[in-house]
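Researcher: Quick one. two chains, 583 residues in total.
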Amino acid sequence: MNRLGLVLLALSTVPLHALPTMIRLGYPTCVSCHISPQGGGLLNLYGRSIDQAQSLVGGEYTPWQNSVAEFLNDNGRITQDSRSVLQQQDVSTDSKAGTQVFRSRFLYRNSTDLGKRWRFSATIMGENVPAPRSSFAYESATRSSQTFVTSALLSYRMKPALEIEVGRDALPTGVNMADLSTFVRARNREGYYDTASQAKVFWWAKRYQITSYVFAPGGNERTGQHESGGGVLTEMDVLGNRRTVVGMNLLRGTSALEDRTLIGPYARLGFGRWGILAEHDITDRSLKSTKVSFLQSTSYGQLFIAAREWLVPSLVVERLRVQRPYQEHLDAVKLEVAARISSQFTITIGPRLQHDPISGHWSRGVVFQVAFKTVH
Amino acid sequence: MKLQVRHYISALAFVLLGNVVVSAAEEGRMAKLEVESGTASFESSTNMPGIEVKGKSSGLSASVEVARDGNGLTLRTIEAAIPVKSLATGMKVRDEHMRKYIFTAADGQTPDIRFQAGGANCGHDLVCKVSGNMTIRGVSHSVELTLQAKQQSSGSTLAFRVAGEGVVKLSDFGISAPSQFGVTPSNQVKFRLEFAARQKASMAGNR
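Model:
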């Protein structure tokens, strides 16, 4: 894998679908604003009002109410939107020639209330250039596709704070940052096309949330890497002020080629205008064909400051360490500025610098992204 | 070792004697304190498990008349005010909703939140149960709060750091909790006050 490719992939997927930075305002869980308790995806009515309030345009959110809207949302049963993400990436590594990629992605998201607390939701995506996560000597990336169902879930809300979901989706993760190209996500099978078949239970209360899940292959894995397993994600608001969430992700997966066990402590801390997101995942990998075991550790730290409600600059530091025989060391720093112009438009710019301490090489890149979504 | 023990005993005696001297000097004296810097914060749960509303103001102003005597500290009068405009929750639209639906009176004005109380004895531990009247958007209702004071040495001037908390019910002030797309704050709102109070310079000179 050349380093240019690594950086390119590292910059390639910023879908901006989750906002763990909302911890700063005392939103410790995603379910406050999102329809699914895992976060990401469509917003509920309250979430849409917060989305509007947190934009430069600001003001009150007024649901679209006319005969066309009533027809489209089937008198409130269907929540849906269309989303388009345009992204320009410029990347260079030391003396090599730079690369420029323009990527456009279109998503249609739908959540249909089936009645009696049942819900079906799905996200279908199309793109001009695929964005697979990196492949490594010990693990290949899942197959990409220009049209893809990133999520299809049947959900049952048993109680106001207890939900079961069955279907195809990304696995639950710790901080749940939007950028799928971060080491903690891309190196732990959390890329854009990693959508395992799964059953999961979310149980949350004022000070804690517990998510347990079992999973099976999604079908687009490479030969021998159809992984099955299970895990549990437990988090708690330590100080009870809804701004100090500390959690642990435990996952065990097994495939024909590899067993992996992941332990990932994480924290989401909010202090009014600023906050810290941190995650450290240690993955013990055992390759069955060679009987080689080694550790991989990925770290993520983000310091963010809401300069304005709509303008949030962040400093992100990342670290990757892989033990021999697949030894790899990478350190990265990124400055990201996200500007939410309105509930429809978000602009993000993020220069990134990556260093390989073993080879001494530096990689530089910058991403400019415009995201648009319809809001009803 | 003996030397160390003697040193500790001497230090303890010095501290105890020092306190007696300070108390004696202050006994029976009345002083008017003014808040130098104060914050008021509040929190309210909602009907949704994942959502709570918190806010803060750094605009707390207050004056307190106190007397130090053999029974500890006595609060004679307390008057405090918080400008509604200084209360912020971190979200502009939410602040606007709060001012509009909670604090705007029938005449369209947003008068300051006020608290007035008479006497309260704080005892030697400087914990005071204060009963007084809180006025929100022009409607007064009795409210109890518990204050914990800590005296701070500041020469001959009386100075305290005070923290206290209480609960108000919106319905007591004729306020209906507003609802935002199904999210409704609780009728009960917890509040907390923290401030540093110091004796007025002119009074300190007369002590």
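The mean pLDDT of chain B is 80.
Researcher: Thanks, that's what I needed.
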